[in-house]
Amino acid sequence: MANDLILDARDIHAWYGSSHVLHGVSLQIGRGETVGLLGRNGMGKSTLIRTLLGHVAQRDGHILLFGRDMSRAQPHEVARRGVAYVPEGRGVFPNLSVKENLVMASRPAAAAVRGGWSYERVMETFPRLAERVRHLGGQLSGGEQQMLAIGRALMTQPELVILDEATEGLAPLVVAEIWKVIATIRADGIATLIVDRDFRKVLAHSDRAVVLQKGQVVLSGAAPELQASDALAGFLGV
Ligand SMILES: Nc1ncnc2c1ncn2[C@@H]1O[C@H](COP(=O)(O)OP(=O)(O)OP(=O)(O)O)[C@@H](O)[C@H]1O
Question: What residues does the ABC transporter domain cover (predicted)?
Fold first, then answer.
């Protein structure tokens, strides 16, 4: 199994100044596996993601990516290893056009391996973006920006896509479109780590899920098992 792991993070701690936020979290993601990361507000989900990506300087623990030690890696080194991050708040370039946003993210890399995510395939997957290729990132609606952010992530030909609150604040129709794209990414065999407030949708689209409470893993298991678990509602406060 070890060789099939994309991510193997063990005993992760993280701090903001004197505030100790993650208390020994372990998380494994296998090739092509979709993992949901659940927990109430402020429980450490974004911090865990940002720590894995190298954005939180005060950290401890072991992070292996494809078996390589990335415990002290910088964010650009993690990205180069095939981890694409779609942050809360999207992160598209407002002064570049839709096409420029996509093309500048593009990496040929191992595209041939799976057919890859070409500019054309992103356009087919997101018809709304195709209608707006010349618009600037900043002129797009929130939902379109989110699609552009996901499109950018896919153009890097990732092995693992991390989606932090990708549907936050979007209209129901757009949310439904984004879940459809998440299903496409999964069917493509790209591993995904998903954070979203809609825990039912997360479980429906994941192989496995992990629940954080106060910076610790309090529950984890196969998605169908968690769905049926009485403990889950308690941890999520629903
Ligand atoms: N930049 C920061 N500086 C100081 N404290 C922070 C910072 N970011 C987050 N925190 C604190 O760390 C804890 C975990 O926050 P985090 O954002 O990781 O939680 P979360 O589970 O992602 O919740 P949310 O859904 O609200 O984003 C919270 O107590 C939060 O206030």
Answer: 7-236
The CA distances from residue 101 to 71, 110, 160, in Å, are: 30, 20, 20
- Provide the 8-state DSSP code for 68: E
The whole model's pTM is what? 0.93
Whole-number Å distance, alpha carbon 44 to ligand 1 midpoint, is 6
Question: Does residue 111 carry a pLDDT above 90?
Answer: no
Q: What is the ipTM of this complex?
A: 0.96
Ligand 1: which of 25, 27, 37, 43 to mutate, most ligand atoms within 8 Å of CB?
Answer: 43
